[in-house]
Amino acid sequence: MKTERILILAGILVIIALGCLIVYQADVIGVSQSRLEQDAREVQHINAKWDVAQAVNDEMCAMIFYDNEKKKCAYSVYLSGEEYTLGYFYREGGEAPYMEEGVQGLIYEDKGIALMSMNADKVASIVVGDGSRGQTIAVDPEQPFAVVLPIESNVITMYDDQGKVVTLYDTFKG
User: Fold this and answer.
1) Over the stretch 12-25, which tens digit does the pLDDT of each residue have?
2) What number is the average pLDDT over the span 47-69?
3) Residue 134: DSSP 8-state
4) Which pLDDT belongs to residue 118?
5) Please, which residues bridge with residue 90 across strands?
6) Per residue in 66-78, is it b (16+ CB within 10 Å) or e — as a string?
7) What is the three-class DSSP state of 159?
């Protein structure tokens, strides 16, 4: 009788372990918002001493990592999963020469738009929308930045610390 209970318990534990493995392999559980930076550093082998500028909303997370001298950088983008998933999933990342020189925009399906830069152009504000209905996002012109915008953002205008319009260096679909 005792042996039967042990076998049944062992069988249940094996079934639970297999279920967890299947859920993990099916990409149902992603990275929690609180662990995004840590996960990006691990996945991309980013130096722990590098600083990070990040922006996150319900749909995506954009991060730009940079050294103390602000000479080198790397970026990471995570997207939220579809229905029946939890957390964020790594989408892309790596070295970012365009982000060192200007502002780069990345568009992701129906998730949103990520703007990232080492801020060589000294962007001080980003206006989303047109006219009086525009939303202004303040940016420190001396620091790298990451901004996440809704996909419906049809007009995006950036201004430097002198009030001059800054051109978006590059935009592509991720």
Assistant:
1) 877 887 666 555 54
2) 94
3) P
4) 95
5) 78
6) beeeeebbbbbbb
7) strand
Q: Give me the residue label for tokens 């504000």.
A: 125
Adjacent-strand bridge partners of 95: 74
Read off the tokens for 38: 């840590």
Nearest C-alpha neighbor of 63 from the set 142, 134, 147, 6 = 147
- Those residues whose C-beta lies under 8 Å from the C-beta of residue 71, and which sit 6 or more positions away, are 100
Of 116, 119, 124, nearest to 158 by C-alpha is 124
Separation CA 158–CA 129 (nearest Å):
11
Query: Rounded to two decimals, what is the model's pTM?
Result: 0.80
Residue pair 145/53 in contact by the 8 Å Cβ criterion: yes
Does residue 119 contact residue 144 with C-beta atoms inside 8 Å? Answer: yes
Q: What is the pLDDT of residues 106-139, one digit of tens each?
A: 998 888 999 999 999 999 999 998 767 778 999 9
Strand 156-160 versus strand 60-66 pairing type: unpaired
